[in-house]
């Protein structure tokens, strides 16, 4: 049998020493020239746009969510940059402006003058729901593209007026359903579309938290004029919208619902504290969910059941920590994460910037926001009628 040639057994020190000796043997200029030699560009890398070429954004409303999530999202954006703040608190606006390099400021009295500002392409409405329609329409009439926080508005009539303003001014209108840009939910959507779960059979969604009326970010949510509705508008809409995202080829046909507000709870004199709901889809499957302002701890859970496998996300729609458990094909449950949830904010901003620049429909357009408000209105009608089935 032929013997395999032996590889010389050089030590790490011998290799380093040999390299050092070789470099000393070269003229000094030759060694430096060799080190400075450039390399060709390989492939076609996707380079970030220069700051001056990014779409320019005004943030309207500097509350907890805007300051804690939306504004930091611009740090990782590649097609979007902040240029303006609109706030009723000039000191807060200027303090944040100094921190983030924003130098253009508006208040709610001179808001319409953004029409004359060439440094604003897009407006992000981060106000309480009751103000969405007014400030969205005014921004559209000022010639700006608008991304509006969810839910889109207080009523379907307001949503329709917002869409009409977008059409009349040839502007892009989107609703900030950030979950459509969250990597873990996108992973589950890909699994659904690939058939990893088989045919979809059932979806459930539970979302809620314990509302604190003494905390300003919760207080306005308990006032119908500002909130539009109760827990279903604010937290339950995540479950509804995300469930329908996973059923792209299906259509809601009817809904039913029951209020689950605790009796005599003083927090809920204007809006519902909880809602248990069902949506019957054209395919015959059911989407079932619940929303609540009375749960502790915070709950954000989505479950998808197919003919071959199932997925549970718990948490499902949070800012920082979404997790997936996949079970099927006779294998034990497998837990994993598919990406950092915090990237959803930059991805949503850049997705809207790209759509607005191209004159295309955003991934989560105003029409989607209108659909969801119509569904919730139908749920309220059902609950008011003791859970009667309401056809859509």
TrEMBL record:
The keyword Plastid does not apply. Gene3D superfamilies: Dihydrodipicolinate Reductase, domain 2, NAD(P)-binding Rossmann-like Domain. GO terms for molecular function: nucleotide binding; oxidoreductase activity. The keyword Ribonucleoprotein does not apply. Residues 189-311 form the GFO/IDH/MocA-like oxidoreductase domain. Keywords: Oxidoreductase, Signal. Residues 55-177 form the Gfo/Idh/MocA-like oxidoreductase N-terminal domain. Residues 1-33 form the signal peptide. InterPro entries: Gfo/Idh/MocA-like_OxRdtase_N, Gfo/Idh/MocA_domain, GFO_IDH_MocA-like_dom, Glc-Fru_OxRdtase_bac, NAD(P)-bd_dom_sf, TAT_signal. Belongs to the Gfo/Idh/MocA family. PANTHER family: OXIDOREDUCTASES, TRANS-1,2-DIHYDROBENZENE-1,2-DIOL DEHYDROGENASE. This is Gfo/Idh/MocA family oxidoreductase. It comes from Aurantiacibacter zhengii.
């Amino acid at each position: 049998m032929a013997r395999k040639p032996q590889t010389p057994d050089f030590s790490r020190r011998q290799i380093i020493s040999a390299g050092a000796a070789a470099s000393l043997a070269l003229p000094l200029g030759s060694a430096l020239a060799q080190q400075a030699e450039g390399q060709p560009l390989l492939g076609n890398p996707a380079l970030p746009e220069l700051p001056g070429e990014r779409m320019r954004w005004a943030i309207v409303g500097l509350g907890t969510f805007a300051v804690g999530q939306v504004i930091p999202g611009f740090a990782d954006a590649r097609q979007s940059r902040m240029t303006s703040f609109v706030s009723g608190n000039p000191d807060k606006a200027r303090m944040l402006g100094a921190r983030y390099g924003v130098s253009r400021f508006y208040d709610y009295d001179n808001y319409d003058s953004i029409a004359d500002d060439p440094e604003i392409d897009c407006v992000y409405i981060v106000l309480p729901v009751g103000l969405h329609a007014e400030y969205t329409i005014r921004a559209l009439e000022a010639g700006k593209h608008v991304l509006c926080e969810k839910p889109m508005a207080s009523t379907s009539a307001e949503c329709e007026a917002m869409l009409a303003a977008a059409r009349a001014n040839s502007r892009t209108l989107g609703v900030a359903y950030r979950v459509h840009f969250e990597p873990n939910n996108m992973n589950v959507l890909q699994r659904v579309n690939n058939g990893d779960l088989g045919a979809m059979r059932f979806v459930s969604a539970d979302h809620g938290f314990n509302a604190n009326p003494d905390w300003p970010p919760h207080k306005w949510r308990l006032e119908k004029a500002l909130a539009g509705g109760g827990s279903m508008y604010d937290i339950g809409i995540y479950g509804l919208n995300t469930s329908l995202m996973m059923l792209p080829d299906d259509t809601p046909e009817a809904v039913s619902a029951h209020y689950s507000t605790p009796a005599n709870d003083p927090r809920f004199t204007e809006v519902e504290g909880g809602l248990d709901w069902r949506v019957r889809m054209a395919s015959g499957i059911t989407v079932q969910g619940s929303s609540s302002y009375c749960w502790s701890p915070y709950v954000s859970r989505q479950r998808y059941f197919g003919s071959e496998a199932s997925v549970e996300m718990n948490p499902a729609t949070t800012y920082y920590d979404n997790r997936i458990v996949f079970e099927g094909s006779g294998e034990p449950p497998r837990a994993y994460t598919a990406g950092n949830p915090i990237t959803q904010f930059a991805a949503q901003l850049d997705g809207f910037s790209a759509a607005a620049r191209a004159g295309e429909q955003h991934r989560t357009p105003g029409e989607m926001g209108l659909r969801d408000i119509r569904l919730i209105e139908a749920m309220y009608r059902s609950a008011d009628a003791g859970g009667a089935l309401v056809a859509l």
